[in-house]
Amino acid sequence: LREIPMRPGQLFMDPKRMIEACDENTIGVVPTFGVTYTGNYEFPQPLHDALDKFQADTGIDIDMHIDAASG
């Protein structure tokens, strides 16, 4: 399990930082669509696009599961 730590003002996964954590051993990426504490929503499309580019560049196909919740 690799976590992408949050930073001040950045509460969701950054596509660039996500890709930096991916390699041939990565089996999936799990963004959160709906945070029950805040009601915030992460936008999965930029993450999906980054994974598509990663696959085109490396041949490594990584699945994405969107963890959905709402208050």
UniProtKB/TrEMBL annotation:
Gene3D superfamilies documented for this protein: Type I PLP-dependent aspartate aminotransferase-like (Major domain)
Uppermost EC category: lyase
Lyase as UniProt keyword: yes
SUPFAM superfamilies on file: PLP-dependent transferases
Keyword annotations of the record: Lyase, Pyridoxal phosphate
Ranges in coiled-coil conformation: none
Pfam families named in the record: Pyridoxal_deC
A single BP term in Gene Ontology: L-glutamate catabolic process
EC number: 4.1.1.15
Gene Ontology molecular functions: glutamate decarboxylase activity; pyridoxal phosphate binding
Cofactor(s) this protein requires: pyridoxal 5'-phosphate
One GO cellular component, as annotated: cytosol
Keyword field contains Lyase: yes
Listed name of the protein: glutamate decarboxylase
